[in-house]
């Protein structure tokens, strides 16, 4: 009887594991926003297929970058470069995809590193000047002394998703990072539950 139960449990685990396996996807860019240590950091990584999309060099009046979550605006920018290439037409679907629920206006970032990247409320996308289709895009935008609340962001396990030309996707996840004390409490709770079950 015990072996049948074990088989059933492992069979269920195997089924769950199969369902959870990721499926192959097109080129994509992932942006993750995390709140930790009194700061909020946006980190992006991935690449985009920009074949067939026309871009125009654009001057950006920003020291390091900014966000306007309520209207879906996002920009990571390197002040040592004078331009960023922005798509001429609406290349994102949906064109306006707010990733904030409270209108706090536009907030300037404290620091930026990596590849310039941007999304605007008109459905256009910004990439480094002279970007080669399929090249890596990696960067970090930091808002020192900010929280999700002060930036108008609401944590969600479901990413905000845009579809870019050529069926690529841009996904932004606003992730709550547990404080070390919370993580320790969760671990202790799990241990107590396991010990209780053994009795």
Describe this entry's structure for a reader:
The chain is α+β, with helices and mostly antiparallel strands. The protein has one domain. It has two helices and 14 strands, in the order H-E-E-E-E-E-E-E-E-E-E-E-E-E-E-H. The protein has helices at residues 2-20, 180-198, and strands at residues 28-36, 39-47, 55-59, 65-68, 73-76, 83-87, 92-93, 107-108, 111-114, 117-119, 125-128, 136-144, 160-164, 169-176. A seven-stranded mixed β-sheet has the order 7-13-14-1-2-12-9, with no helix packed on it. A hairpin with a 4-residue loop joins strand 4 and strand 5 (73-76). The chain is globular, with a radius of gyration of 21 Å. The model is unreliable at 1-25 and 182-187 (pLDDT under 50).
Q: Care to give the gist of this entry?
A:
With 199 residues, the chain is of the alpha+beta class. The protein has helices at 2-20, 180-198, and strands spanning 28-36, 39-47, 55-59, 65-68, 73-76, 83-87, 92-93, 107-108, 111-114, 117-119, 125-128, 136-144, 160-164, 169-176.
């Amino acid at each position: 009887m015990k072996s049948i139960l074990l088989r059933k449990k492992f069979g269920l685990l195997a089924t769950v594991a199969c369902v959870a396996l990721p499926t192959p996807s097109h080129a994509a860019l992932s942006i993750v926003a995390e709140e930790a240590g009194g700061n909020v950091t946006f980190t992006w990584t991935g690449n985009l297929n920009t074949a067939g999309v026309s871009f125009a060099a654009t001057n950006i009046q920003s020291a390091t970058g900014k966000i306007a979550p309520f209207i879906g605006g996002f920009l990571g920018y390197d002040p040592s470069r004078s331009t960023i290439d922005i798509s001429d037409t609406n290349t994102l679907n949906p064109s306006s995809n707010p990733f904030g629920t409270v209108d706090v206006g536009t907030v300037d970032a404290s620091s930026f590193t990596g590849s310039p990247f941007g999304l605007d409320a008109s459905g256009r996308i910004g990439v480094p000047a002279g970007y080669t289709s399929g090249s890596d895009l990696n960067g970090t935008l930091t808002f020192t002394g900010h929280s999700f609340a002060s930036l108008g962001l609401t944590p969600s396990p479901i990413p905000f998703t845009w579809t870019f030309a050529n069926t690529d996707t841009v996904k932004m996840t606003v992730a709550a990072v547990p404080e070390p004390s919370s993580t320790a409490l969760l671990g202790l709770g799990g241990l107590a539950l396991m010990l209780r079950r053994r009795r």
